[in-house]
Specification:
By secondary structure, the chain is mainly beta. The chain contains two helices and 23 strands.
C-alpha cells in the first residue's frame, strides 16, 4: 500500500460543559457504538470505549481530550506525514491515545481523574478520530454525552482496633476514620462484629448515634469508657460496656452501608473469614481484602492493629495493616 498524506484538521475547542465524542465509522464501515462504561469520578478512572463493526479491525482509532482553554501539542499519527492535535487539560492530564482496533473492532481509553478539589464538577470534552489505512482517510462525527466529574465518594475506613489488653479487657476500641476529601454522612452506616467460629454477626453499632456526619480527616471511636472518656471533645464516640470485641482466631470487623447493602471496609484478624453472615445481606461476605493480615493483638503487651500509613486502604490487608506498640484512639496512627 502506498501511503498518501491525509488532511487531518485541527480539532475545534468546544466551550460546552459536556463530554463530546467526535467520531465516525471508518470509511465503508457501519455499526459504531460509543460508550462510557465508567462515569468520571474524582480519584477514580473514566473509561471511554469505541465499538465498530468487526470488519473495521486493524484500523486506527485516536482519542483526544479537548477543553475550553487547552494547550496544543503536536503528535505523529502512524502512517501519515501530518500530525494530529493533542490537547492538555488544566488538571495536567496528557490525554492522547492512539490504538489499533482489535479483532472485534473495539478500542478503549482510560482517563485517570485526580482526587483534587478542582476535579469535582469539572466538565471536559473527549473527541475521537478514526483513520482508515485502506484509503488513508480520516473522518469524524459529533455525538455528545454529558459527563461532569462527580465528587469522590466518602472513604470511611476501619482505621484501628484494640481487642485484647493485658489482664482485663477494659480498654477495647474500634476507630473509624474519614479518609475522603469531604464530610461523610453516617446515616445507615454500621460497624458489624463477626464471630469467626461460626461466621455469624454477634454485635452491631449504628454510627449515627454518635454524629450525623464525619468531617474529612476526622475520627469516630467505639470503645469502653476508659477510652471514650479520654478522647478529645471533637471526636464523636459510642460508649460500650465490658469486653465487647472477641479475641480472634479468627474474628472480624465490617463497616457497612445498610441503605445500599455495600460493604465499605472489612478486617478479618487472627485468620480468615471468607463467608460472614451479616443481618440484612442476602449473600455471605468475604472479610479478607487481598491477602490476610497475619498479626495479632496481645494479652500480655499493650498494642493495637493499625492502618499504616494512617487511613491507607489499598484493599490488601497484608500491607495496609500493622501492629503498633502505642494505641492512638481518636488520633493518627
Amino acid at each position: 500500500m502506498t501511503n498518501r498524506t491525509a488532511s487531518v484538521p485541527s480539532l475545534p475547542i468546544v466551550p460546552v460543559a459536556c463530554v463530546c465524542f467526535l467520531a465516525t465509522a471508518l470509511t465503508g464501515q457501519i455499526g459504531r457504538i460509543m460508550s462510557m462504561p465508567t462515569p468520571p469520578v474524582a480519584g477514580q478512572s473514566a473509561v471511554f470505549k469505541m465499538t465498530h463493526n468487526p470488519a473495521a479491525a486493524g484500523r486506527i482509532n485516536l482519542f483526544v481530550l479537548s477543553l475550553p482553554t487547552p494547550q496544543a501539542v503536536a503528535i505523529p499519527i502512524p502512517g501519515f506525514s501530518v500530525s494530529g492535535l493533542v490537547r492538555i487539560d488544566p488538571l495536567g492530564l496528557l490525554a492522547d491515545h492512539v490504538t489499533v482496533l482489535d479483532a472485534s473492532g473495539i478500542t478503549s481509553w482510560t482517563l485517570p481523574i485526580p482526587n483534587v478539589p478542582t476535579a469535582a464538577g469539572f466538565a471536559f470534552d473527549v473527541q475521537t478520530i478514526d483513520i482508515d489505512f485502506v484509503t488513508n482517510d480520516a473522518a469524524w462525527a459529533n455525538n455528545d454525552i454529558a459527563a461532569v466529574v462527580a465528587p469522590p465518594p466518602p472513604r470511611l475506613v476501619i482505621n484501628e482496633i484494640d481487642y485484647d489488653q493485658p489482664n482485663v479487657d477494659n480498654a477495647s476500641f474500634i476507630e473509624i476514620f474519614n479518609a475522603g476529601p469531604g464530610p461523610a454522612s453516617l446515616a445507615n452506616i454500621e460497624v458489624r462484629l463477626v464471630n469467626g467460629a461460626n461466621s455469624q454477626q454477634y454485635a452491631s453499632f449504628a454510627l449515627a448515634t454518635a454524629a450525623a456526619s464525619l468531617a474529612p480527616n476526622a475520627y469516630l471511636v467505639i470503645g469502653n469508657g476508659t477510652i471514650t472518656q479520654s478522647l478529645p471533645g471533637s471526636v464523636p464516640s459510642i460508649n460500650v460496656l465490658g469486653d465487647f470485641i472477641q479475641n480472634g482466631s479468627p474474628d472480624g470487623v465490617v463497616l457497612v452501608d445498610t441503605a445500599t447493602g455495600v460493604v465499605l471496609d472489612a478486617l478479618s484478624y487472627e485468620g480468615s473469614i471468607g463467608a460472614a453472615v451479616l443481618t440484612g445481606f442476602s449473600t455471605t461476605i468475604d472479610l479478607v481484602e487481598g491477602a490476610p493480615f497475619t498479626g495479632a493483638d496481645s494479652s500480655t503487651a499493650t498494642q493495637s492493629l493499625v492502618r499504616v500509613p494512617n487511613g491507607i486502604d489499598t484493599n490488601n490487608a497484608a500491607t495496609d495493616w500493622a501492629l503498633a506498640p502505642l494505641p492512638t484512639p481518636g488520633a493518627a496512627n
